[in-house]
Amino acid sequence: MKCKIKKEGIKKILVSRTDNIGDVILTLPLISEIKKHFPQAKIVFLVKSNLKCLLNDYEDIDDFIFIDEIKSNIDLYKKICAENFDLVFCVYPRFKLSLLFFLCGIKYRVGTAYRGYSFLYNIKVREHRKFAEKHEAQYNLNLLNSLMGENSQSIEFKFKISENEKLDLINKLSPKFNLKSNDKFIIIHPGSRQSAIDLPLNTLKEFIRVFLNEFKNYKIFITGSKDDKLQIDFLLKDFEDEIGRNIINVSGLLTLRELMVLIDLSYLFISNSTGPIHIAGALNKKIIGFYPDVSPMNPVRWKPLSKNAKILTPTINPSDMSEIKAEDIVKLTYELLEL
Question: Is this model's pTM higher than 0.85 or not?
Answer without folding.
Answer: yes
